[in-house]
Design a protein that fits this description.
The structure holds two protein chains of two kinds. Chain A is of the alpha+beta class. Chain A has helices at 54-66, 161-178, 220-241, 289-297, 303-314, 318-325, 328-338, 344-365, 376-387, 393-406, 410-416, 425-438, 440-448, 453-463, 470-481, and strands spanning 2-14, 70-71, 78-81, 91-94, 101-108, 111-122, 126-132, 135-141, 148-154, 190-202, 205-208, 212-215, 251-256, 261-266, 277-278. Chain A folds into three domains: 2-289, no CATH class; 301-416, no CATH class; 425-481, Arc Repressor Mutant, subunit A, CATH 1.10.10.410. By secondary structure, chain B is α/β, with parallel strands linked by helices. Chain B has an eleven-stranded mixed sheet with strand order 1-3-2-4-6-5-10-11-9-7-8, with helices on both faces. The chains are: A alpha+beta, B alpha/beta.
């Protein structure tokens, strides 16, 4: 029996526009007092009308173009009708027949995942279920109601839980490159609903298990474990019942992150009828060719292209290039540091600082890199000093962080702290003699075993407060001892 | 001072020459309302306090020599589906009984900003679903010309209020004839503007792609005066159009009747038209002819499909537009429901009027999967056809002249239990809404029982200036519109 998972992902991304999708309320809703960012339109009061947010529409188009999609000549919104208390109008404005963009693809590892569509819609409010004096209450916060959402629907080209995770990471990276959303899964600004079934080859026959849409997955690892669980569950279910996919047996399962398992939420999803029809309150939206070109021009170099360029132009290895390009602002800072037309040795040196000292500092301090504090001259000076052996690689790591912190030339910092490497033989010889005199036992050891010179070098480095050139120190010690 | 039958400009003349104060104007109408409205029942809410406060404010400014708005002294009644901040807005439905909105509709606010005085909120069919006001969740309005007759609807309260001289003008909405029909049955003038001329923001939605807010007045000149204030783009209504708004009232004489080509569509003069109505409307056409205009026989063959298209598309939009009335954020609700579905069903079931439910059901059905293409998609195609027929016809003629209502006002109750008969009263008005073009309704005579008859002049998109000008000139050579009911 051969099992191939067939996985498609629906990703919802909350755009970080200033205002909501169809009104001028602030779109901010994380840690905001309930129902303070509301108005007649997002509360669905009688007579209130939606007016589309132009920036949000443009950003949806921008994302679509970045995903290689084709824009529809004319798009329109539709009403998706269903009742739920946090859906104020009793219908959600979304796009069904004519989304802004269709038919794209992205690279995930060595594979390609086709994108079916990306469309614009609005978020719902939030229902909070509480218990008050043993009475169960549902409170509704409409701050999130009407926040712009882009839904990106993939084709079922994903074949493993790991690949699903990589797809999401790639999507997140592209979205962050575009600067249109925080795409934070934990905070809910990026949400993911996998649809999973299996192709089972058994006794020369092919079977497809019923489709399952998984809801409530709230973390990246959750996506992976939920899909993993679902693959196992469907395999077992197939072995027991032999049930295969039909037009009516698509089910919705919820993900329980505490129990690490999926559970049946709604059966026969296929039968629900949302009665979509074109939203009469909003005229059709058409982007001209010039407008599309203008939006295209705002798309920055995307991660794949950037990695290729780093490898080709700077001879960086695949691993480093990937790490440097992983975060847009980090890569921007790196590119600012290396300046125009850098030599590859300098690029390699700077890359090591970014991926080593700077990244460690950012992780430890939990701060974001401030590109304004990156000064290409400082990196160049530091590189020159290290090349001339004036500054050791160890000191370089130390001073670059301080330089970033206090905005001062790192070479100056090294000088002021006495961290300039001594490469003057007579100066080192003076210290070496002192070390030999004060460590007779180590000298004896060396005579028996020359490999033990390390101890004496260490003592010399210590006496020089780390400023001696270690290579030179070794040479001088050996000369004096032999 | 007897202000009966005075128009906006006549009243303003008295006000600005200090022969009368705004407070006196308001008191005159309040007195009439108190005396006569208990029989006519045009108002759901009389805004005595607000009106007097506004009037005092205007008087103070006039006294101090300060500037006042273009409609200072004009007293208006407002259909109760226009949201009016701090003033109860019921949409004539039990669903919104006692509902006090937090904001005002755009065009109401524009009129208030020009110092129009609001005297009250008028009765309508619930959410404007109907043609007689008989569907109202509260009571039926009577026709001031004959209290046993309907005033027409849905804006029947507004039409009756103008006809009964409870105000100088009134706001209404016309989704399938709801301004023109009651205007015609009550012997007043009414304008259904081009879709998108007047903002719909803050008016409970019936069918969003059809709804046209508009105005009733005693003559066309007043329609022009008010429309030049209400019209124009509204950043809160994405379907309003950014066209410059002409000063309609200043260009009413601009059309030369002698050069006019008037289309007479044969489909509007056949069954179900009443013989007396046909005669009076044709007489109006002949009057234009005798004043130099050319009458041109035209055909709008899809007219017969109008009602069918209308009663598929309109309920479809209604079914979604009514979803927000769930009793959760506003409006009335019910208690002790075991779950959310029962809450919805009991709340909506208890308070929505029969016609509201009927239209939700029709619309939900038409939009259902499996039926959508046969109903909604097909009807949308016919809609385009009807629209094209109007624009094509209007290439050869300046304006189309047609009756408004097939009959004069009918007895209260006569059609109340037969929804299909009731839907047919819109036979000559709905196509104009399906197309989205403007139409002005005005009086052209009376039948033998002294009930008013009206006709409409239909223009091309955004040609309000043209149809108002033609209508105004008709009123310069006729006096039907100056007749008032004996109350």
């Amino acid at each position: 029996m051969k099992i191939t998972p067939i996985i498609g992902l629906e990703v919802h991304v909350e755009l970080k526009t200033k205002s909501k999708m169809f009104c001028s309320c602030s779109a901010e809703h994380f840690h905001v007092d309930p129902n303070t960012h509301t108005c007649p339109t997002c509360l669905g009061l009688p007579g209130a009308l939606p007016v589309p947010n132009k920036t949000a529409c443009e950003w949806c188009l921008k994302l679509g173009l970045a995903l290689g999609c084709t824009p529809n000549e004319s798009s329109f919104f539709e009403r998706k009708n269903y009742f739920y208390p946090d859906l104020s109008k009793g219908y959600q404005l979304t796009q069904y027949e004519k989304p802004f963009v269709v038919n794209g693809k992205i690279k995930v590892g060595d594979q390609e995942v086709r994108i079916n569509r990306a469309h614009m819609e609005e978020d719902t409010g939030k229902s909070v279920h509480i218990k008050d004096n043993s009475q169960e209450l549902t409170l509704i916060d409409y701050n999130r109601c009407g926040v712009p959402l882009v839904e990106i629907v993939s084709e079922p080209d994903i074949t493993s839980p790991e690949m699903a995770k990589d797809y999401l990471l790639k999507m997140q990276q592209i979205i962050r490159y575009l600067g249109i959303s925080d795409a934070d899964i934990e905070k809910g600004s990026m949400r993911c609903e996998p649809t999973v079934n299996l192709k089972i080859e058994k006794d020369g026959q092919e079977f497809f298990t019923p489709l399952v849409e998984i809801k409530n997955v709230a973390s990246l690892t959750g996506v992976q474990t939920a899909i993993d669980f679902e693959i196992k569950r469907q395999t077992e279910a197939f072995n027991q019942t032999g049930e295969v996919k039909s037009k009516t047996n698509k089910n919705t399962y919820g993900w329980d992150a505490d129990k690490n398992q999926t559970f049946l939420q709604r059966e026969k999803e296929g039968s629900s009828d949302y009665r979509y029809f074109p939203e009469p309150d909003i005229p059709h939206i058409e982007f001209t060719k010039a407008e599309i070109e203008a939006i295209k021009a705002t798309i920055p170099e995307l991660p794949d292209q950037k990695i290729e360029r780093y490898k080709k132009d700077f001879a960086l290895n695949d691993y480093d290039a990937n790490l440097l390009a992983s975060d847009f602002s980090f890569s921007q800072a790196f590119e600012k540091a290396i300046g125009q037309n850098p030599e590859s040795a300098f690029v390699k040196f700077t890359a090591n600082l970014f991926l080593g000292a700077i990244k460690t500092y950012l992780n430890e301090s939990q701060k974001d890199l401030d590109i304004n504090k990156i000064n290409s001259k400082y990196f160049k000076n530091l590189f020159d000093s290290v090349s001339k052996s004036e500054i050791s690689a160890t000191v370089a790591k130390q001073v670059i962080v301080e330089s970033y912190y206090i905005d001062q030339d790192p070479v100056e910092i090294a000088k002021n702290s006495g961290l300039i490497q001594v490469s003057d033989s007579s100066e080192i010889a003076k210290i070496a003699k002192e070390v030999i005199n004060t460590n007779p036992k180590a000298v004896d050891d060396y005579k028996k075993n020359p490999a033990s010179i390390g101890f004496l070098i260490g003592q010399l480095m210590k006496a020089s407060k780390g400023s001696a050139n270690p290579k030179l120190a070794k040479e001088i010690l050996e000369k004096l001892l032999n | 001072m007897d202000l009966k039958s005075l128009t906006i400009s006549q009243i303003q003349e008295l006000l600005f020459s200090k022969q009368i104060s705004a407070v006196e104007i308001v008191k005159f109408y309040l007195q009439r309302i108190k005396k006569l409205d208990p029989q006519i029942k045009s108002f759901i809410t009389v805004t005595e306090k607000e009106a007097l406060k506004q009037a005092e404010n205007i008087d103070n400014r006039i006294k101090k020599g300060e500037s006042v708005g273009k409609l200072a002294g004009a007293v208006m009644a407002v259909k109760d589906i226009f949201l009016t901040k701090d003033i109860q807005t019921t949409a004539s439905s039990q669903v919104l009984k006692d509902y006090v909105p937090q904001y005002s509709s755009t065009i109401y606010q524009k009129l208030i900003n020009e110092d129009a005085i609001v005297i009250g909120k008028t009765n309508t069919d619930p959410f404007a679903f109907g043609g007689s006001t008989e569907n109202s969740g509260f009571f039926t309005t009577k026709n001031p010309w004959n209290l046993s007759k309907v005033p027409g609807g849905s804006s029947g309260g507004s039409a009756a209020a103008v006809a009964a001289d409870f105000c100088q003008f009134a706001l209404g909405t016309d989704t399938g004839g709801s301004i023109r029909l009651p205007a015609s049955l009550c012997n007043i003038s009414g304008l259904k503007p081009t879709y998108g001329l007047n903002s719909r923001y803050g008016i409970t939605a019936m069918a969003s792609s059809f709804d046209c807010p508009g105005v009733f007045a005693k003559n066309v000149s007043d329609l022009a005066l008010v429309t030049e204030i209400t019209a124009g783009i509204d950043p809160k209504d994405a379907t309003t159009i950014n066209n410059p708004v002409p000063n309609y009232s200043q260009i009413l004489g601009d059309i030369d009747l002698k050069k006019l080509r008037i289309g007479i569509p044969k489909e509007y003069f056949i069954d179900p038209i009443n013989i007396e109505v046909k005669e009076k409307v044709m007489k109006a056409a002949k009057l234009f002819e005798s004043n130099g205009a050319t009458l041109v026989d035209i055909s709008l063959p899809s007219t017969k499909l109008g009602i069918a298209v209308y009663y598929i598309l309109v309920p479809s939009e209604i079914s979604a537009n009514m979803a927000r009335y769930d009793g959760i954020r506003f409006g009335r609700n019910t208690n002790n429901n075991p779950d959310i579905t029962s809450y919805y069903m009991n709340t909506r079931g208890q308070y929505m009027e029969a016609e509201v439910k009927r239209r939700i059901l029709i619309g939900t059905y038409a939009l259902s999967s499996g039926y959508y293409d046969a109903y909604y998609t097909k009807a949308s195609k016919v809609r385009t056809l009807i629209k094209n027929e109007f624009t094509n016809a209007l290439k050869n003629v300046d304006v189309i002249l047609a009756p408004v209502s097939p009959t004069v006002a009918w007895d209260i109750g006569a059609k109340a239990n037969d929804p299909l008969q009731m839907y047919l009263v819109d036979a000559f008005t709905v196509c104009i809404n399906v197309a989205g073009v403007p139409s002005v309704a005005l009086p052209c005579g009376f039948d033998q029982t002294n009930l008013p008859i009206g006709f409409q002049l239909i223009g091309n998109f955004f040609e309000e200036a043209k149809i108002l000008s033609i209508a105004h000139q008709y009123q310069q050579i006729t006096d039907f519109h100056t007749n008032t009911p004996n109350l």
